[in-house]
Amino acid sequence: MLPTMLPTFSDRWRSTLDWCPTPEQQQHFEVLYQGIVAANQHLNLTRITEPEAFWEKHLWDSMSGLSFFLPGGDRDPLPTPARIVDIGTGSGFPGLPAGLLWTQSEVALLDSTVKKLRFLDELLATLPLPQVKTLAGRAEALGQDPRHRETYDLALARAVGGVTICAEYAMPLVRREGYVVLYRGQWSAAEEASLSRALIQLGGVIDRITPFQTPLTQGVRHCILVHKTADTPESYPRPVGVPAQKPLG
Ligand code: SAM
């Protein structure tokens, strides 16, 4: 057992998300934290390594976007997604916390940077999460690959690009009636209008926009839940690089 470095913050979890990790999940968070901090000495994985900041900005923040699927909100929770893809996972956020939360769900940690995925493979070897796998490639390419296109129940995207770029990466990967969670910081009416326009082309609608305040530093976050209501036209995603060069919306 590793010596504990990460705060537990049971009260903060409960007061902000109405959820709290089990002792086993907390121990897995600890493994994840220590693995990332150790690897960060030779890989540029994250600037956030101080325990409290890591808890808030990586763990709590990742979980906030999953709260649509957990009891405790003002609406019934959505069913647990069976197949999840985390687009641009980087050092594993929010996909790794999703895999720790839902041990029966398949989670694909997708990134185009193979170096980060090799680190995640090593980290996954230290955790009992056989259903979590890394996936190398560009979201635009996998979105046109029949092995991945419209096969996921949930796509997650945090800190990967502009909101309509993320929507174009995510929507083709999700099956009809599935969901996308877009993690954002500040949120504006202009972004909402632009996302709504893009979603008309991609086959979805904004279901909910939930503002959060981070529990330690009172930062502003928004999680945008998108519902896929129609098949995405074959022309999306556009070729590699185009969504970022010419964003929809
Ligand atoms: N999601 C993580 C987080 O919130 O900590 C990592 C964010 S990091 C700033 C963005 C990641 O997205 C990078 O690792 C990058 O390689 C990946 N990425 C950017 N565009 C991508 C694309 N089109 N397909 C796959 N991965 C992409």
Describe this structure in words.
This protein has 249 residues and is α/β, with parallel strands linked by helices. It has one domain (10-245): Rossmann fold (3-Layer(aba) Sandwich). It has nine helices and seven strands, in the order αααβαβαβαβαβαββα. The chain has helices at 10-17, 23-39, 51-64, 95-101, 114-124, 139-142, 163-170, 189-202, 242-245; strands at residues 83-87, 106-111, 132-136, 152-158, 174-184, 204-213, 220-228. Strands 3-2-1-4-5-7-6 form a seven-stranded mixed β-sheet, sandwiched between helices. β6 (204-213) and β7 form a beta hairpin. α7 runs parallel beside α8.
Topology (SSEs and partners):
Elements: H1 10-17, H2 23-39, H3 51-64, E1 83-87, H4 95-101, E2 106-111, H5 114-124, E3 132-136, H6 139-142, E4 152-158, H7 163-170, E5 174-184, H8 189-202, E6 204-213, E7 220-228, H9 242-245
Parallel strand pairs: 1-2, 1-4, 2-3, 4-5
Antiparallel strand pairs: 5-7, 6-7
Helix pairs in contact: 7-8
The protein binds S-adenosylmethionine.
Note the main attributes of this structure:
alpha/beta; 249 residues; binds S-adenosylmethionine
Provide a quick synopsis of the model.
β1 (83-87), α4 and β2 (106-111) form a beta-alpha-beta unit. The protein is α/β, with parallel strands linked by helices and 249 residues long.
- Hetero ligands: S-adenosylmethionine
Tally of helical runs: 9
Largest sheet: 7 strands, mixed
Class based on secondary structure composition and strand pairing: alpha/beta
Task: Count the domains.
Answer: 1
Q: Any guess at the CATH architecture?
A: 3-Layer(aba) Sandwich
Write down the secondary-structure element order.
Answer: HHHEHEHEHEHEHEEH
Shape: globular
CATH fold name, please?
Rossmann fold
The overall pLDDT, averaged over residues, is 96
> Gyration radius, to the nearest Å?
17 Å
**CATH superfamily grouping:** Vaccinia Virus protein VP39
Unreliable stretches covering 5 or more consecutive residues: none
